[in-house]
Amino acid sequence: MKSATEKQGVLSRLLKDRLGNFGMMTALLLPVLLGAGGISIDLTKMMMTKNRLQDASDSAALAAASALANDNMSIEDAKLLALEFIKTQMQSGGASPGDPDSADTGGQQEEETNAYASSLVQIDETSTVGTGKSWVINVSANYEMPLNPLTRLLVKDKTTISASTTAESATESKSALSMFLVLDRSGSMSFKTDDIASRKVPCKNWTEKNWQKPEVTAETPCYVRKIAALKSAVANLTTQLNTADPEMELVRTAAVSYNDRMQPETQLAWGTAGASAYVNALPTEPTGGTDSHAAFAKALDKLVPADASDETENPAHKDKNGQVPTKYIIFMTDGENTAYDGKSTDANGRKSDTETKASCDKARTAKVEVFTVAFMAPTRGQTLLKYCATTQANYFEADDMTQLVAAFKAIGEKAVAAVARLTH
Q: Where are the domains of the chain?
């Protein structure tokens, strides 16, 4: 039997023994080390899943926005469509590498269902002008991502990945606009184009060489005059505006014409009836020289008065449709300036050019968008219109009636264009 002293010696030696410390420390730290490795793997997976989920959210919001605006889809159906887009996008992304829960078809289906069930789609509808509607689509996509077994040693079994998107759309263009036509009705607008108006009914086919010569008689075929081509082009433009705004709640128009003097303008009014009547009443055989400065300045002053207290367009739209309108001037000529306030000299023609350009500069500063159309115009006339166009894309050259109508059609399309856009 060991004595008490011997027992104390054995216990002292046992406490001083360090031979198993590494094994004990390894046993204690191993779960922590394994958990840290698992977290590193899961962080990479979380980033990949977050990107996939954001793509799914964006696609879902835009799909719903487009379906509401273009396909007349109900809100409930649009929500289901958005959720299906999320499910499809998560499916197309495939399983994440190293994810045991997504390594086969069954795991992938679970992943799709997870994202589908955990996501929310909120659609707010607002009535706008007339029968129009607009929508705000908010998509909140969520996915419960399972963590790998190593991570689960330290933290929970799953983590939530989220992504969100907002998109907007509308049934029609909600951009209110005010448009002023500045149109050349000088003598050269009586000249013929190459388009035949009638092979049976004779008329005087005026050209620069025979203009107003008494010996000119009516003949067939009768060619379309430039002024008639202009009326057709404006009719195409107003048809587009009327189609976009059948209730006359968004569009206001007016017109002014000029030869070597400015003619009285129409007042800006809802719809296109006033401007159309003005253009159709232009003489079938215009006369006179060309001076654009006063007519362009008048159009600009009516859209954006120099004295802010005279402003009428913004208040008119605010009362009618609650918007600040986009303002346009369509400036057309078939010649070059030859006069200033009725006095025809080369110097006066260039003075008109200078003052017209000054007004074009003011329009640019005032954010009035200017479209210009050179209709069979000489070089100096083209140069003036190129200068006045807000951008190069806003300048058009037309060498015949077909091209003139196409130019006004393109302008109309730009004015009434509509889009669905991603906002956040």
A: 22-170, 177-417
